[in-house]
Amino acid sequence: MSPRAAPPRFGPLQLALAAAGTAAATLDLCMDGWVAAEYARRGHPGWAALSLSLLAAASAASQACSWLWLRSDPPALRPAVPAPLLAALHLLQLGFFFRCLYALKVGWRVCWAKAEEEDEQRHMAFLSHDISMLRLFETFLENTPQLALLLYIILRTNKAELSQGLGMVTAFLCVSWSLLDYHQSLRSFLQDKYELSLGSSIVYFLWNLLLICPRILALALFSLLWPYGLAVHFPLVWLAMFLWVSLQGTDFMESWWPEQLYRALVAVILYFSWFNVARGRTLHRSIIYHGFILLDSSLLALAWLWGQPPSEEHSYLLLLLPAALLCYLLGLGLRVIYYKWLHPNVQVQKEGRYDEVDAGGGEDGVEFRSFLEPDLVNRRMQYLAQTHLSLSQLAQQHFLNGDAAV
After folding, report:
1. Quick one: which H or E segment has residue 248?
2. Which of 63, 404, 2, 361 is nearest to 189 (CA)?
3. Residues 171-184: pLDDT tens digits?
4. What is the pTM of this model?
5. Cβ-count burial of 291 within 10 angstroms (0-12 exposed, 13-18 middle, 19+ buried)?
6. ∠146-167-96 over CA atoms, to 5°?
7. What are the residue boundaries of the structural domains of the chain, listed by start?
8. Which end of the chain is flanked by fewer CB atoms within 10 Å, N or C?
């Protein structure tokens, strides 16, 4: 049995990144409010109401997850705050920001108060993993629909206000960054510290960005043809994704009803981007998913092209469509490059080493961090790490990177 690994080290750099993440979430919320206010001021209360509705729905879902997780956490790891007050914060949609501020408080103590105990480090890792997951949920429930709405409005009015431009930039960055942050958080559970390098992180960020942009464009174009069409398209595709996730038998939450909430949120993510939920090799599932999304997005764009030929002021969109297709194919190409040459497991292969299964680490083919105190493990993120980062027996022997990765 290999020696037990220390928890991921939380230092000043990690504290600065956590503070930047909290500031970015606050800025994103302010930008959403600014955009909605501009819609109302310019005589478009419907757009303002839709924008605020998306924000409210995303916040409510994230707060529900946060509260369910707090209730299931070991008492020693819950904030020293009365339960009624925690419940009130979540009802007021402040639960996520409370988590961020509490994590900054613990992180400050770990970094500057000379808290060298491993339990403190594990506590900080526990908090950081949950925040990463909640940020991913809220980003895909709020930022990606907002992106489609913003692009639809810009194309509809054929002009972009400053608030809209800034809103789109911040939303695209938040979506891609949340995926990168989530992936890095999962990798911290690996026994061997083969984390993403700077180059790997950049490529991972870019291929996610390049795959999401064409999807958003296709949805916005379809909305130009049929403004209420997404009210039909989204439930149908979401239901198909929900059933697909359910058939893969996820086991993330503590009970059946919360598990359905998790599956529903994952189905929303899958409407826009790939998200693995089952153990084992993902190559075939990934091919099926990307093939479906490429076909669906192409049909949406072709429906707009057939039903509403571009006017002279929208003639540039005829050039944008092939560019979007190339963008998607480039994103897929970067993904292949990442898993073939830039994935951290490639470093293991170059050194002639293998991730052997720890005697107590289960049967998934990856050695995860073991802990002296099991209650200090974030079991939710450990489950996701086993799901996303597990290797099949064939991958253990030959390191077929990409077949069993996120």
Report:
1. none
2. 361
3. 788 888 888 888 88
4. 0.84
5. exposed
6. 70
7. 12-307+317-348+378-397
8. N
